[in-house]
Design brief:
This protein is α/β, with parallel strands linked by helices. The chain contains twelve helices and twelve strands. It has two domains: about 140 residues, Rossmann fold; about 150 residues, Rossmann fold (3-Layer(aba) Sandwich), CATH 3.40.50.2300. The strands form two sheets. Strands 7-6-8-9-10-11-12 form a seven-stranded mixed sheet, with helices on both faces. It is elongated, with a radius of gyration of 21 Å.
């Protein structure tokens, strides 16, 4: 897995050099601020990659998931030493940074649906957390070559967007999307029961209407019982029983954010648009694969960045 991630990082750095954007600003060193929404392990890899790629000193603060604490801390820092730019991780960090320092350029990462948080404008950009649908579906098809009918359960307001983005890619791959729109999270089990006999796999999209603790527990158990592959968007769900996940590479996201930051700091008032993540990681749960009868031969294993086997866990 490390080789794949390093290739992604090196590719980004090569792109930076190729377009003539320096990895640090040669004039007076800019003041950078890194803001974490919470003290999460997932933030460490992008922060480390970001700092390594920029080679610029930066203060790191954690707002501990608190709007009040975050606002107060950001205001204090702005009064003491207003940063030239901010790298924000997570929705709360990005949103509060923009609210407190609206004129300061912001590069964000690990924010789901940034437009909902007002993360747009002439001085705001970032790395999206959503992997393009054509890449997702292609990787699903590589692992499950017999995949023909893919179930999707989504909230009513999100289903049209999912269909618009995923529909063309699914058609090209010979996959029929079987979509069920729900109003409430309590409707998810019934939506699955209605589609379970007509699908080969269930695609879990990052929709807060659908993904609750109870719904995940139900879907993880029922899909295994029904012989339906459960495809997730996070390694954590794979550890909890889903078959596989295709997720952004956190390390590569940090390097990608560094490229954006250097472009922002060297721009004349305009910033690049939000970018899709360049790198991704493919993780599979070996125990779930065995339950579904998926052969884990050498060729299959080589497709994955990580193979999890809960039976080997202490």
């Amino acid at each position: 897995m490390s080789t794949l991630l390093n290739k992604g990082t090196l590719l980004l750095l090569a792109m930076t050099i190729a377009v003539g954007v320096p990895l640090s600003v040669s004039a007076e060193a800019p003041s950078l601020l890194i803001v974490k929404s919470e003290d999460l392990a997932q933030y460490e890899a992008p922060i480390s990659a970001f700092q390594e790629a920029t080679t610029m000193d930066a203060d790191v603060i954690d707002i501990a998931g608190s709007r009040e604490k975050g606002t107060a801390l950001l205001k204090k820092l702005a009064a003491k030493r207003h940063p030239d730019a901010i790298f924000a991780l997570g929705a709360k960090a990005a949103y509060l940074s923009k609210q407190v320092m609206p004129d300061t350029p912001i590069v964000f990462a690990m924010v789901l649906r940034p437009e909902k948080f007002g993360l747009k404008g002439d001085n705001t950009t970032g790395v999206a957390v959503e992997i393009p649908e054509d890449i997702l579906l292609t990787r699903f098809k590589l692992v499950l070559p017999d995949l023909k009918r893919l179930g999707v359960i989504c909230g009513q307001e999100n289903c049209p967007t999912i269909l618009e983005k995923a529909g063309p890619a699914a058609e090209q791959l010979g996959i029929e999307l079987v979509v069920s729109a729900v109003k409430h999270s309590e409707s998810v089990p019934g939506a699955y029961r209605r589609m379970r006999t007509g699908i080969d796999a269930l695609w879990m999209v990052p929709d807060p209407t659908v993904i609750t603790r109870d719904n995940f527990s139900y879907l993880s158990s029922r899909t295994q019982h029904d012989g339906v592959a459960f495809l997730a968007f996070s390694e954590n769900f794979v550890r909890a029983g889903a078959l596989l996940s295709v997720a952004p590479s956190y390390q590569t996201m940090g390097a990608q954010a560094a490229v954006l930051m250097n472009k922002v700091l060297n721009s004349n008032g305009s910033v690049p648009p939000v970018q899709p993540p360049v790198g991704s990681t493919l993780v599979i749960n070996a125990s779930t694969a065995k339950e579904l009868g998926i052969q884990m031969d050498a060729a299959t294993l080589n497709m994955f960045d990580e193979v999890l086997d809960p039976a080997d866990s202490p």
